[in-house]
Write a sequence for this structure.
């Protein structure tokens, strides 16, 4: 991944529900976790039609879980290099 590719994400990151975003990727499960609040205690969630789990705490989005995350890449990135 290049610096330019990372910088491309800046507008989206600034429009997130929170200024803090924690991410974890489980490669074995191919699941990306994004959390906007720590600690968060989700009291509700919904699974969208495109396999994204949205987690809520008192009606506020506190995180999303992206299933099959690697299949969503426009350009595949494997071990730090583009294919």
């Amino acid at each position: 991944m290049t610096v330019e590719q990372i910088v491309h994400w800046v507008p989206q990151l600034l429009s997130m529900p929170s200024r803090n975003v924690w991410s974890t990727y489980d490669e074995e499960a191919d699941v990306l976790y994004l959390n906007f609040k720590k600690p968060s205690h989700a009291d509700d969630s919904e699974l969208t039609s495109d396999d994204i789990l949205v987690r809520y705490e008192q009606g506020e989005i506190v995180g999303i879980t992206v299933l099959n995350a690697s299949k969503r890449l426009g350009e595949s990135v494997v071990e730090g290099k583009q294919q």
